Amino acid sequence: MGLFGFGEKESIADLISGLSSSGITVLSLKSLDFIVPGGWNNYTNFDEMLRALTRETDDAFLQSVKKRAIDLYNDKSQGYQTAMKIYSRVDTADKALGAAALTDKLSEKISLLSFMKYLTPKADTAQAIDLVLKMISELLAFTKINGIPGDSFTDFLAALKDYSGESKIRMAALLCFDGLIPLGPDFVRRGMDILGGLRPSELSKNKTFSAISEYIPGANADSKLSFIRTGFDAVKDWMSGFISQNNLSANKVVSNLKQYVDVSDDKLDYLAAFVDVFTNYFEHTGTQTLAVRLIERAVNEV
Amino acid sequence: MTNFRGKWFVIVLAVLFALSACGKSEESQQPGPAAGGEFNKFFPKSADGFDVVFTQEKAGMAQAKLKKEGKDAAMLTIADLTGNPDAAGKFKGSTAAIAGYPAADSGSMGTAVLVADRFQVQVRSTDSSFTENDRRLWLERFDFNGLAKLK
């Protein structure tokens, strides 16, 4: 139960309180802090978030903002719950195994070797599909949160360039953990190539696609694939630009991850599988993005 | 006498008819909150080195950021209070006005105006350099009169 009451199950306040303040997801994200120096606060308390974002101190005022934010999230027609489902579903494959294997391992630096038996690196095609679908999920969640049509590629691209805080760190993690590390420095081109040769029937068999398919515009796998290709093509220059502007390389990212995971440089595919299985960075930061947008809106409506 | 009664009967019928017509017209004028996209044209344009960048647009709400040199300075919001009437309470005790419309503080960082007893227009500082005077100045740049005519 939070400071201002309102302890309903699965309210946006509860979802924030349910986020971890430590663990592999948080450590992985913190290893990317150099991209957004000090820009990401790992909020795990809604009331604290409310005070920080609104810069208000009056409890009665904050309580009214909190109530409004909770009401807006609970109103299904507003689209925030759909965005939450997208962030969550794209990030849930194979997580149960990861959580079970990690018990009692967090107090010490983790050796990747001891986890190898749990990990199966993805083939390039499956990895590229994951990268692409996470990017498309970001587009879809963005349109649901901001209330604009699903195919608003131009609006999305403009917003991406303006991303900050938890949204920017999510994109950094996507490009590093699902692009750069498993697919190498030319991951954007490889993603485009694999996507170009992909058949709708192959896409349909992909687990991540099945999880979010209902939210992708298009009547069948063929038209959904066409939407995915257009969407990924729209952001390819932004992705390449993000890598070059932040001077990102697999070496740089891995050397930061090595602060808590022991890994040799010839096992990058296992490192990517490790991050995939043991983190839920998309859902974690996606929940924070939703709370930020809800608070920004609610404080202006009370 | 009969004529007098007849006249009253006609008048009563006319009043009943008018009342029932009023009821119908009230129903038809309350289709729920206005679409957020309807509000965009009432927002101020970019000026004085500030950019107005639209962010959220939902049923009953539109929101934009006010940015200067890429940094956030304030949020601009128009919200339909149809589904959130409590928000109008703060205007009841206020004698302040901006451009002729009732105005009130919203917390310590926001200044709000009530238009047509239905729409709240708020400017909220997100950077401490954006003062209360700045908020009033930007509120005056909204098209309140146009918004007031929105059905």
Describe this structure in words.
The complex is a heterodimer of chains A (302) and B (151). In chain A, helix 4 crosses helix 16, helix 6 (95-102) crosses helix 15 (268-278) and helix 7 (124-146) crosses helix 10. Chain A starts with 11 loop residues before the first helix and ends with a helix. With 302 residues, chain A is mainly α. Chain A contains 16 helices and 2 strands. With 151 residues, chain B is an alpha+beta fold. Helix content of chain B is 27%, strand content 32%. Mean pLDDT of chain B is 83; it is low at 15-30. Chains A and B meet through helix 4 and helix 16 of A and strand 1, strand 3 and strand 7 of B.
Quick structural overview:
The complex is a heterodimer of chains A (302) and B (151). Chain A is an all-alpha fold.
Biggest interface, chains and residue tallies = A-B, 25 and 23 residues
Give the oligomeric state of the chains in this entry, treating copies of one chain as homo and distinct chains as hetero. heterodimer
State Rg of chain B: 21 Å
What about the largest sheet of chain A? 2 strands, parallel
Portion of residues in helices of chain B? 25-40%
User: What's the number of helices of chain A?
Assistant: 16
Proportion of residues in β-strands of chain B: 25-35%
Give the overall pLDDT of chain A as a whole number.
89
Total beta-strand segments of chain B:
7
Low-confidence stretches of chain B: 15-30
First-to-last CA distance of chain B: 47 Å
- Strand arrangement across the biggest beta sheet of chain A: 1-2
Q: Spans of chain A with pLDDT under 50 lasting ≥5 residues? A: none
